[in-house]
C-alpha cells in the first residue's frame, strides 16, 4: 500500500527511488531523447532572443530614424520565430516515441508480472486496483517523465536565463523580477504538499468507486434477481458523493493557489513599469529596453506559474510510481524450480501437507498424507469447507503448502519448472472460467499446437460437441465468462479443456455439478476411459462420481481420516455414509414410492 | 430505413467499435452528445450566467494591463522627461495593480464556481450512467460485457472530469482573450491590427484540420484503451485458469499486441499535436516579426507610438499563447467528446425489459404464475420456447427437469422477468409481469442461481442484501432456517467475517448457503431455484432440502434441478424437451408411469450407491 503520511521524508525518498528506477525504460530511446532536449534548449534561446531584437528595433531604427537597419533586424526576428517553431516541432515529434514506448514497456512488464503472481495475491487484490495501476498510474508517470521533467528543466532554464538577461539589461529591475519569483517558489512548495495529500485522497476514493463499479457490473445478475437497483445505487451515491466532496476541497485549494500565481507576475509588471519609467525619466534606461523588459517579464509568467503545477504533477507521478513499483516488487511466491519430468508417470504424493492462510489461527489442511499411484484415481470426499478445493489447488501450485510437500514422480512440485508441472497436471475447476475468445482458443489454452482431432476427442469426452453447432462452430466467440452459454455447457467446455492433450494427472474439482443426470452419466462413462490411463484426483459430492475412482479419501476438518474403497467406507464409516448415501434417511416413504 | 443512409447503425452503443464514421453518423452522434450535455448543464443556468459575468470581468481586467502599459510609456513617461512630475505614471501604475487584483479575485471566484458546477455535473452524470446500467436488462449486459461497463464508468467519466476541471476554464478564457485582444488591437491601431490579425483565417483553417484529425485519433485511442482494459480485467479475474493452463505466454502476446495498438494510436495523436502546436507558434512568431517590421516602419514615420508597439507585442503574446492552450484543451475536449458519445449511447439504450409507465397495483402477491401462449427466442435465434401454456397455482412447488438446453433456465428467466416473451404473456396473480413495478416484482419473485455472487463486505452484509432493512436477528434467523448458521458461526469473526473479493475466502458450497440465506431473507411469494443446490455437498443439500420443506410450504416455488433428489419435495414435476412440457404430473404418478421421467428416475436411483 502507499506509504503512510507522517514519515513524509521517507515517503518522498522512496517515491523518488520508485520513479528513478523506471528511468531504465527510457534507455532504448537515447537518440530521440537527446534530440528533443537539444531542440528544447535551442528553442528557449530563440524565444528569448526575439524580444531582444524588438529592443534593438525600438532603440535603433525607430529612435534614430534609421530605415536601413529596420529590414535586417525584422528579418532576424522572422528567422528566429521560424526557428523556434521548427525546434518546438522537432522536440515534440521526437519525444513521442520514448514517452509512449516507456509507458507501453512498463505496462507489458506489469502484465507479465501479474500473470506470474500467485492466486493468493489475486485473491487479495481487486482487479480494479490493478487496472488503475496499469492505466491511470502509468499515464501519470508517462506525462511526467515525458513532458513534466522536460518542462521542469526548460522552465528553470528559461527562468534563470531571462533573469540573467534582465539583470544585465538593468540590474535593479532584474533584481526586482528575480525577487518576485521567491514567494512563488516558497508557496508552491507548501501548496504542493497539501495538494498531493488531497490528490491522493481523491485517487483512493476514486479507486473505491471503481471497485464498486466493477462489483456491480460483475454481480449484475444477483442485483437484478433481488431488485436491489436502488440499494446499490444508494451505495454508489455515497461513494460518488465522497469523491465529489473531496474534489471540491481540491478545487478550493488550487483556486487559491493559482490565483496567487497569477497576481504576482502582474504586480511585478506594474512595478517594472513604475520603476522602469522612472529610470527612463532619469536616463538610466532606454525606451527599447523597457519594452523588451516588459515583454520578457511576461515571458516569465508561464514558466513561473507552471512550476508549481509541474512539481505537483511530479509528486503525483511519484505516488503513481510507488503504486506501480509496489506491484512489480511483490515477489511471486510461487516460482518454478529447474527440474523437469522427462517421462511423467503421474505418481502423486501428499506428504504431511499443511496449508494455512497467513495469519489464520486454524490451518485449512493439516497433516495430509495421500499416495496416488500412477494411473490410479482417488476421489476426495468431504463436507463443505473441509478443504477439498485447497487440496486440489496444491497440485498445479496455484497455492503452495505451508508445511510438508507435494511430489510428482518423486519431485517436490516446488522443484519443478512451472510449465513442466502444469503440463503434467490439468485441472477442471468447479467454476468454469471461459475467456472472450473463440471456443477453440478457450479449449487449447495450454496446448496451442493441438490438432482438430485432439479437440474433437476432448469435446467428445466432455459431451461438449454442441460446440460444433454454435453459429460459427469452434470459431464462435464466447462472451465474457461464457455468459451466453448455460452453466452445464460451460462446465463441459472447461472439462474438455482439462482432458485435451491427455494430461498425466487430471484434477477434477467437482466439475460435473451443473450437468443433468443423463449427460453426467455419459461424461462419466467417457471419463472412465481417460482416467484408466491418467492419474486422477477427483473431488466428488455424489456417489456416481465417486465410482470413477479406485479409492476414496475422506477429508474432515482439513485432514484425511479414512482412505479406502467406496463400498468399504460405505459400510464401515458412518460419517462417509452420511455424506454420500443420499436419500437413505431423507424420506424413506417417498424414496420408496 | 426511415433514418436515411445512417440507418440504425449508430443508435445506442452500436457505433462504439467503429473508428471511421460517415459524416451523417458522426453528426447524429454529435447531436446526441450535445443533447446530453445540454441536459446536464440546464440545472446550472443561473450559475453559468454568473460565471460568464465573472469571466468577462476577469478577462477585461487582464486585457487592460497591456493597454495600461502602453499608456504608461506614451503618456506617463513624456511628462517625466519634461520634468512635469510623475503623477500620470503613478495613476497608471495604480490602475495596473488594481486591474491585476481584480483579475486575481475574479479568477479565484471563477475557478471555485466552475469547479463546483463541474463536480456537480460529474456527480449527476455518474449517478445517471450507473443507474442506467443497472436498469438495462441482462440481455444487454451479456452482450456488452462488464469490462466495457467498467471502462464507461471509470475512464470515460474521468475524461469528462478532466474536461470540466481544466478544459472549461481553458476554453472560456481562451475565447474571451482571443476576441478581447482582437478588439483591443483594433482600438489601439487599426493599420497595425490588420497586419496582426491577417493570419487569423489561416489559423482557423489549421485549427479545423486539427479538429478533424484529432477527432479520429482520439476515438481510436479510446477504443484501443478499452480493448486493453477488457483483456487486462479478464485475465486478472480468470487468473486461476490462466495459470493452471499455462496461458501466460499467449496472453502476453495478445496483451502486447493490444498494448502496441494503443501505443500506435497514442503516437498518431501525439504527432498530430506535434504538428499543430508548433504550427500555431510559427504563425504567431511570423506575425510578431511582421508587426515588428511594419510597426517599426510606422513608428519610424511617427504613425504609431512606441507604447502602442509595445502593447501590440504584449497582446500578440496573449493572443497566440491561448491558441496553444486551446489545442491542449482540444485533446481533453476530444477525449471527453468521444467519452460523451459513448455515454450518451449507453443512456440511449432502452432496457429490453422496460419498467411499465403505469404500474398495476399488486399490494400482496399470492404467487400464482401463468404462462399464456408464451413464445421466446434469443435475438436472431431459433425459438427456445415455441408456445407454452402453463398454470402454477399459488403455493405449489414445481420441479422442472429435462436435458441441458431444454429451456428450463429460460423458463426461470421468464418468470423472474430477466427476459420478456416474444409473444404471449407471463402473469403473476393474473397481472402481466410487464405491468408490474420493478420493486413489486422483485419483492414477489426471487431467483437463486448457481452463480452465487457475493459482494465485498461481511457475511451479514451479503445476507442482508436480500432485505436491506432486516435486523441482525433476522439475518441470523434466515441463516438458521437454511442451515448455514453453524458454519457461519464457526468463521473467525462469525457474521462479521469479511468474505473477501467475490467471496474468495469461502468454498463454493458456503457461498451458495449464504446466497440461499439471502434469498430466504427476501421472503418472496415465488422462489425460483435454478440448479441452486448443485454445488452443495450432500449433507448441506440435505439441510437445505429439509429447510426448503418449511420455507416452500407457503410459497410458490419453481425448482430446476438435474438431481432428482430435489424432486422429492415437489408437488408437481414438469419434464421439458425443446421448450415444451412433455410430461406433467405429481412425482408419484410420473415415477409410476413409463415415460421419460420414470426412466430418468430409475437411472438416478441406479446412480446412487
Task: Describe, in plain words, how this protein is organized in 3D.
Chain B: It holds the Pfam family ABC_membrane. Chain B: GO terms for molecular function: ATP binding. Chain B: It is a multi-pass membrane protein. Chain B: InterPro entries: AAA+_ATPase, ABC1_TM_dom, ABC1_TM_sf, ABC_transporter-like_ATP-bd, ABC_transporter-like_CS, P-loop_NTPase, Type_1_exporter. Chain B: It is found in: Cell membrane. The complex is a heterodimer of chains A (about 600) and B (about 600). By secondary structure, chain A is α/β, with parallel strands linked by helices. Chain A has 2 domains: about 10-330, ABC transporter type 1, transmembrane domain (ABC transporter transmembrane region fold, Up-down Bundle), CATH 1.20.1560; about 350-580, 3-Layer(aba) Sandwich (Rossmann fold). Chain A has 19 helices and 12 strands. Chain A has helices spanning about 10-20, 30-65, 65-115, 120-125, 125-170, 170-220, 220-225, 230-280, 285-330, 390-395, 420-425, 440-445, 450-460, 485-500, 515-535, 545, 565-570, 575-580, 590; strands at about 350-355, 365-370, 375-380, 405-410, 410, 425-430, 435-440, 475-480, 505-510, 535-540, 550-555, 560-565. A 6-stranded mixed sheet of chain A has the order 6-9-10-3-11-12, with helices on both faces. In chain A, helix 6 packs antiparallel against helix 8 (about 230-280), helix 6 runs parallel beside helix 9 and helix 17 crosses helix 18. The longest helix of chain A has about 55 residues, at about 230-280. Chain A is elongated. The longest helix of chain B has about 55 residues, at about 250-300. Chain B folds into 2 domains: about 25-350, Up-down Bundle (ABC transporter transmembrane region fold); about 370-605, P-loop containing nucleotide triphosphate hydrolases (Rossmann fold, 3-Layer(aba) Sandwich), CATH 3.40.50. Chain B is of the alpha/beta class and about 600 residues long. The model of chain B is unreliable at about 1-5 (pLDDT under 50). Chain B has a 6-stranded mixed sheet with strand order 6-7-8-3-9-10, with helices on both faces. In chain B, strands 2-1-4-5 form a 4-stranded antiparallel sheet, with helices on one face. In chain B, strand 9 (about 570-575) and strand 10 form a beta hairpin. In chain B, helix 1 (about 25-40) packs across helix 10 (about 305-350). In chain B, about 65% of the residues lie in helices and about 10% in strands. Chain B has 19 helices and 10 strands. Chain B has helices at about 25-40, 45-80, 85-135, 140-145, 145-190, 190-195, 200-235, 240-245, 250-300, 305-350, 410-415, 440-445, 460-465, 470-480, 485-490, 510-520, 540-555, 585-590, 595-605, and strands at about 370-375, 385-390, 395-400, 425-430, 430, 445-450, 525-530, 555-560, 570-575, 580-585. At the A-B interface, helix 2, helix 3, helix 4, helix 5 and helix 6 of A face helix 2, helix 3, helix 4, helix 5 and helix 7 of B.
